């Protein structure tokens, strides 16, 4: 009976979000409370479970996501993202322009949330299309594939950060494994796949215009733009690798590395440095920079609430005891846990459209199996991230952004965008499974 309740709860969650368009956080909250009642949690204990669920997940990642949003917003507003794009396009030239745009999407996608990166970079794609008379989808898809992969696979993006917290994974190792999985996936779904799309015709950008950097401020230089945008990645990798390269560090040095290596501290250092390098150095006043940071927090408020809602659902499953029962059941299935996690995330993604909701909901279901089987939690984060990018179609906001920006028919959008997302997802799973043979 508990499994029937969980299945019905997931079905109700999907129905509320996709059919009735109820806010994802409210849907999680309503479904979690109903599931708690149905699973026999005493009514006077339910509020405790709700509060505990929010606290257990948000305590680890609120700072990381908020600071990451601040960094990304400043990278965009300062003109650093555009500077990176211009440098990459000039470096690769017309012949290899796809590769330049793909790398640009990857670098810019690390600090920027997907929607911001999309809006920021699409005008660049069309400026190249008009200048060199090249097919827009053929040119643009590699960049958007890179943006999508960073969104689904790599910290400090909200979904991977939340999954790292839920599975008690290591942020640095997840990032290193994620980079190893991401690069082949982007190449397959970007430059290679887009070669089959040269005949797709698109219209001009009609919906949005790129926000120009104010002339009152200087634009950061090339090195400054690249270094500041990628600083969190390099810091996380460095502090993760140091203990392996220098195992005999003294207590004080080890404590210092552990402190600096904490993801929240890494992001704080990155924001402090960016405040100076992309803000004060470019003659921005502190108040102007703080306004950018304030807007960034507003942009991610709903993302934080959705993650909190997923934490509530996970806690209800734990407090009711159904998590352990589910783990015992899933262990008996003749399917590798990493494949099972990917499959659950992919199915939910196809139903609700949101990659974040898909990954976090699947995490609540698969978490007890991870604990019971001892599967590598870093790889499970990536498996769910890959699954959450599968089946992008008409219920996904990204699908419609791509369709309308590029002025495509429904058929061409499915043929290009949806297939690209499927390639990224499947390639990601294959990469994770290959890594599982090594680590």
UniProtKB/TrEMBL annotation:
GO MF annotation terms: gluconate transmembrane transporter activity
Superkingdom of the source species: Bacteria
UniProt KW keywords: Cell membrane, Membrane, Transmembrane, Transmembrane helix, Transport
Subcellular location: Cell membrane
Transmembrane spans: 29-46, 58-76, 96-129, 136-154, 174-193, 223-244, 256-279, 300-317, 337-367, 379-402, 414-438
Name by which UniProt lists this protein: Gnt-I system high-affinity gluconate transporter
Family listed: Belongs to the GntP permease family.
UniProt source species: Dysgonomonas macrotermitis
InterPro entries tied to this protein: Glcn_transporter (IPR003474)
Topology versus the membrane: Multi-pass membrane protein
């Amino acid at each position: 009976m508990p499994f029937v309740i969980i299945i019905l709860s997931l079905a109700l969650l999907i129905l509320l979000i996709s059919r009735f368009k109820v806010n994802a956080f409210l849907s999680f909250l309503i479904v979690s409370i109903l599931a708690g009642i149905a699973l026999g949690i005493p009514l006077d204990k339910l509020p405790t479970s709700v509060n505990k669920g929010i606290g257990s997940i948000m305590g680890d990642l609120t700072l990381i996501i908020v600071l990451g949003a601040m960094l990304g917003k400043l990278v965009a507003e300062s003109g650093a993202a555009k500077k990176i794009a211009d440098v990459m396009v000039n470096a690769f030239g017309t012949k290899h322009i796809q590769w330049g745009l793909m790398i640009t999407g990857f670098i810019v996608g690390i600090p920027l949330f997907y929607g911001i990166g999309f809006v920021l970079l699409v005008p660049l794609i069309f400026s190249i299309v008009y200048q060199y008379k090249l097919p827009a989808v053929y040119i643009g898809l590699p960049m958007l594939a890179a943006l999508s992969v960073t969104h689904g696979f790599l910290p400090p993006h909200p979904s991977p950060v939340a999954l790292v917290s839920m599975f008690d994974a290591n942020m640095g190792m997840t990032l290193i494994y994620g980079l190893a999985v991401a690069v082949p996936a982007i190449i397959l779904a970007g430059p290679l796949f887009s070669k089959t799309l040269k005949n797709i015709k698109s219209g001009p950008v009609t919906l949005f215009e790129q926000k120009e950097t104010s002339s009152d401020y200087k634009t950061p230089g090339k090195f400054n733009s690249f270094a500041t945008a990628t600083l969190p990645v390099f810091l996380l990798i460095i502090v993760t690798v140091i203990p392996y390269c220098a195992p005999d560090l003294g207590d004080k040095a080890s404590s210092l590395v552990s402190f600096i290596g904490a993801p929240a501290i890494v992001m704080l250092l990155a924001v402090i440095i960016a405040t100076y390098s992309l803000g004060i150095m470019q003659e921005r006043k502190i108040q102007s920079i703080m306004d950018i940071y304030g807007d960034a927090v507003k942009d991610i408020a709903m993302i934080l609430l959705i993650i909190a809602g997923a934490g509530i659902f996970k806690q209800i499953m734990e407090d009711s005891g159904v998590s352990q029962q589910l783990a015992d059941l899933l262990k008996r299935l003749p399917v590798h846990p990493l494949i099972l996690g990917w499959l659950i995330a992919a199915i939910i993604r196809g139903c609700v459209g949101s990659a974040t909701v898909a990954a976090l909901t699947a995490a609540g279901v698969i978490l007890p199996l991870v604990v019971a089987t001892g599967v590598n939690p870093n790889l499970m984060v990536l498996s769910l991230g890959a699954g959450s990018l599968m089946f992008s179609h008409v219920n996904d906001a990204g699908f419609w952004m791509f369709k309308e920006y590029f002025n495509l028919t429904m058929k061409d959008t499915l043929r290009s965008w949806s297939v690209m997302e499927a390639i990224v997802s499947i390639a990601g799973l294959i990469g994770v499974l290959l890594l599982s043979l090594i680590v």
